[in-house]
Amino acid sequence: MKRLNNHGISLVEIVVTFAIVMAIISGLLAIIMNYRLQAQNSFSKLELQTYKNNLTKTIQDDILNFGIGEINTAGGCNSESNKERFSACANLIFKNGSEKILAISKIEKDNRESLENKYIYYDNEKYPLKDNLPKNIPTGRSAYDFQSIFISSDNFLSVDNALLSDGKEIKIYAIDVSIEHIEYEEDFGLHIVTSDADFLTTNALITEFSYTGDVQEFIASADGTYRIELWGASGGNIDPYIGGKGAYTGGYITLKKNQVLYIYVGGEGKAELEGGYNGGSSISETQTLYGAPGGGATDVRLVGGNWNSFEGLKSRIMVAAGGGGANYRNITAEKDKKLYGSGNGGSGGGLWGYDGISEFYTTTDIGYTSADFHAIGGGATQVLGGTKKGYDNEQELISSAITGGFGQANVTEQSGGGGGWYTGSQGSNGGAGGGSSYISGHLGCQAINPNSSINSINHRADSEYPSYVFTNTTMIDGEGYLWNSNTQPTKKQTMPSNGVTKIDGGNIGNGHARITYLGL
What we know:
By secondary structure, the chain is an alpha+beta fold. The chain has 2 domains: 42-132 and 146-200, no CATH class; 205-520, no CATH class. Helix content is 14%, strand content 28%. It has 4 helices and 26 strands. The protein has helices spanning 11-66, 80-85, 112-116, 310-314; strands at residues 68-72, 86-94, 99-105, 117-122, 125-130, 149-152, 157-163, 169-181, 190-195, 206-210, 216-219, 224-231, 248-255, 260-264, 298-301, 316-320, 374-377, 387-391, 397-402, 438-439, 447-448, 459-460, 471-476, 502-504, 506-508, 512-519. A 5-stranded antiparallel β-sheet has the order 1-2-3-4-5. A 5-stranded antiparallel β-sheet has the order 10-26-12-13-23. It has a 5-stranded antiparallel β-sheet with strand order 11-14-15-16-20. The longest helix has 56 residues, at 11-66. 41% of the residues are buried.
């Protein structure tokens, strides 16, 4: 064989080497393209799930707030313009006299524009479903053959009459809109069941749970959908500083008749030694002049018992975080009346809690008398308790230690951390951190594996209880920010009122819980 260079590489060897390199490159490209496709599909799935949850919640909230008088296909559905643009339409007539249309856009199989712009219409707004078709459709083929999202108006509205045991006749309405993606088995559609009966849409089937300092039970009265709402407690105040406010969590869940849930309503942190019930951290006996305890979380569990039982904490399916306690290093002697880095407690968080605050530590005339050090309590996360962060007067971090824990914390300081999925850190010369919230099935929440022990906790992104996953979830932290993803939120949303505690951005005082039966 003829050699091509001084190193003796033959033409055959060059061809073989080139073939091997190309095979490796092709393999890598295939892996990259496959990963890209999986990522795109996962994003599409998340978009569809979010679409379903948000729109379902909007409609369910209207039904719950206003009550259904009747649902029919008359009214605005009969207008010529609506007949032209909708393939199915329902007129929702509420008990306050208002009306809203729920409809599906008309899909024309041979109309590319129609297939690319599917939407659901509700209350004068379009909710689009983008189906991006390829730019070039082969000759003889229809754009309909290449769609990835399918929306159906079959069996859109059904109405059934039901006779109750007391002789009263009611109507039960079911609206079904099937939305499917070609890559998934899930149905991402809307499935609304409601009735004109008052007991399905008024306070008659709302169960309230106020603070008692002990576990409370809820027993489902019927199979069906329930909305669970929780408000965490606020941290303790110590004049002139205030504790962090409690968070809010809510969502829809399907329960079987006689299913038992255990409700733990958080207690407010007060200017005493003991932390707020259900995870609010206590303070040291020698530090009562300087700080306040943390507020307790409010949560729902599948296992009852003592609030700090690990098996019970592990079984939580929803948690609304409590706020951290405030700090005020005020020495009573006139000559020593100086502030040592005092501040407010951090509010209960969404996916993670807020840090406590420390101020005045650099002011010469009212600063430190001895130690140039202040430590704030850090907020908890989904996987770790809050970190106590020590700073010098130049705000340089000089020490840190995790002092929060899973649902509870044992370390005591001048100000106590807030309760939560994980608890916030205690603070000294500064406010304590807020706890973190948790909802089974909410984006960004980190569940724990069922085989975790108190000394070895490991996490997972999906729920450890597949039968207890919430939909239409809402998470609002104690500062009033709405958590829709696993990034720091920028949008505020008014926290729902429970009519018992005070709401001012976040929850103030003891926690609260509410469970509402939404129907079949």
